[in-house]
Design goal:
This protein is α/β, with parallel strands linked by helices. The chain has 10 helices and 10 strands. Strand 3, helix 3 and strand 4 form a beta-alpha-beta unit.
Length: 325
Amino acid sequence: MKESRKTEHINFLPSVIVRNPHVQSILASSKMRVLTKSLFLRTAEEMIVPTSTGSKLLAFYSRHNNPKGLIILLHGWEGSSSSAYMIEASYYFFKLGFSVCRLNLRDHGESHHLNEGLFHGALLEETFDAVNSLANLSAGKPVHLIGFSMGGNFALRIAKRYSSFPQAVLKSVFAISPPLDPYKTTLAIDNGYSFYRRYFLSKWRRSLIKKQKLFPHKYDFSKMLNARTCMELTEALMPYFPDFPSYRDYFNLYTLKSDFFADLRIPVKIFIAEDDPVIPREDFDALDNNHFLSILRLKYGGHCGFIDLFPMHCWYNKIITDDII
């Protein structure tokens, strides 16, 4: 990654038509972004990635004949390798000459059958192993990791883990709208615009129902599916995670405080919008750029948006490209 530029010299000013943070957030997952990319998706290779923990994760690999490097992408909570922002970014970097791999976190996409255990946000070890395994596909070329929302939180933790490896194959990490404090983010989803609460609860319930049908001997979510908030459902699920004394202990396992970023050894860039409707702005107030950390605080962009029109494009793709090429 090139030397960090000053945040104030980089700005994202979208057309007033799409400047609203909710429009930005909705556009991030809009299927209209991927209408012309069906051939690209059909040619991707499906991969089952084993990990040292015994779990398996599902990934889709688009191999370039003579790649400049490898881009690995991690989606957000209740997103998947098929999320519009994942497909659009994959297609963009594939056209630039990179091989790309879209990795599903456990119980996301069509991967519920691969593991009996439930997904939770503290499953760093298996995700790190999967990224490390996929990085070997690069054949010595540079590897870059891009994470969106919760996938951005995972990407930041993976960057921290890679900082312990002097010969790390991972060259840089980019986090788009990552939650630093998942407890606060869950509260923001529950207490903000009801659209977000209904959206995430609906997708989460669907995921749990699928898991219950696959493993009826282990799971019975029937009572808790009536939960009215994400926090209520999180608390109700805690008996399935006996390693966590409480949901606050669970959230603390992947809460990233300012000292977390002090010992990075690979370049990390964070994109965060002041108008993000589900990531509290103050979570980033205590963070400062350092030799390996660059934080781009933008006025507009919503949650994982940063999209403009005429022509329609995603702003962070260009910034990432400037860093890796």
